[in-house]
Amino acid sequence: MECKRLLLVAALTLASVPALGRDAVPPGQVPAPQSAADVPKPVAGAPVSKEYAQAIGRMAYIWGWPLVNMHNRQTLFATAPHPGLLGGVLPVAPLNHVSMLSDYLAPEQRFITSPNQDVVYGAGFLELDKEPVVIQVPDFGDRFWVYQIVDQRSDSFAEVGIQYDTEPGMYLLVGPDWEGKKPKGINAVFRSQTNLGAVFPRIFMDDTAEDREAIQPLIDQVSAYPLSEYTGEMKTVDWSESPTIPNPNEGGDGETQWVVPEEFFTLLPEVMEETPPLPGEEALYASIKFVLEAAQDNPELQQALQEVAVATEQDVIQPMFEFRNNGVDAGNGWRTQKNAARFGFGYFQRTATAKGNMFSNVPEETMYFGADFDSAGERLHGKEKYTVTFPAGELPPVDGFWSLTLYNKQHFFYPNELDRYSLGTKNKSLVKNDDGSLTLYVQNKNPGGAKEANWLPAPKDDFSLYIRAYWPQEAIPNGTWVPPTIEQVD
């Protein structure tokens, strides 16, 4: 009875205390912010020292480098008058369209480092705030294919490919603010977190005349166009007749310079406006915008930011180009990526990938392994001879295809007498050893005889090797399969 009386008194006492609403706070306490929007922002007009501007600017350069890179690539595509081949070698199209090759990518191109010679590529950049974009998927049958579809952060936002059991037909790409309904005849809708994005179809092709002929009707049905041009009918284009479009960036040994340090902070405000912060990035955006606003009418701060951009490019970005500085250890001197095309807050990985091998697929689509050194830790160099031997039964376990590609020191194909830049599934004349193993010969001079079929020609100076495993089986991502050693031989 006494217990019940005490409970009643307690209940009456609590009832007499005003309830604390969501915004009510006991005296002497500061309310916790309810969202990022409630957090106080830096005060405009506060003094900003050169040193502080450069400290924030250094991080802004590392973080924003791949976003500015994407912005400038889109700017190039926006100048295309129609789909065609930039400089006669690179597929380029007006925004919200794609262009396709009809063969492997030519070694002369300088649009993108670390490409492959296993697929027929396509390319197109998106401007989804204008209108949604329809992409066509032909019936590829059992042939490996995948469309890489990324936002401005080069994060994938659509699963379109053979590994996803994607049905032939039409698909719609929309921006973050689109509120329409799925049109009749559209199989699915994929939403990007940014209005700027890109589409890169990849369709596997054997290195034979027969397969080059067989693939043409399929790639001619690969297309993308604004929703306003959608009729429900499959459009076709004879991509083998693509016209040449003059390339304003022709020349040079390395990749087109998509990020110019001296212009970076002039472009960054526009890029930040077109790339809304991810949840959790609000503080980073506020810190960077505070410095950018302070520098608007301050020549000294503008000069300080330009100086730090140049220094960061040299000290931080340039070293990211080497494969050894990207990804994680995969064994036997190889490096691999675990979060390609889903970088999130992995700013280092995103920027390193954008510098050395931009537009890498997500791991379910492709795993990549790069090497700059041999098994003894020596830099790969054309004055030496190497072998890469896959033991019997230990070729890369894939459901798609695999290849070993050789790049020169600029991460491009090395022109050679055989026009051969990679070896793998596409090659039908590879010769296995008596025990079932496969040895590939990596050297400058032709080894001659039966070895020529397995020869990967190398330049006379530094080079790198790259293994691709498209549609990898579980042994690759879980680390059970380890890439072979790169052995220096006499």
UniProtKB/TrEMBL annotation:
Protein source organism: Gilvimarinus xylanilyticus
The DUF1254 domain, residue ranges: 96-226
Keywords: Signal
SUPFAM superfamilies linked: VPA0735-like (SSF160935)
Signal peptide residues on this chain, from the entry's feature table: 1-21
Pfam annotation, one family: DUF1214
Gene3D superfamilies referenced in this protein's UniProt entry, alphabetically: Domain of unknown function DUF1214, C-terminal domain (2.60.120.600), Domain of unknown function DUF1254 (2.60.40.1610)
Superkingdom of the source species: Bacteria
InterPro entries: DUF1214, DUF1214_C_sf, DUF1254, DUF1254_sf
Protein name: DUF1254 domain-containing protein
Domain DUF1214: 365-474
PANTHER family per UniProt: BLL3101 PROTEIN
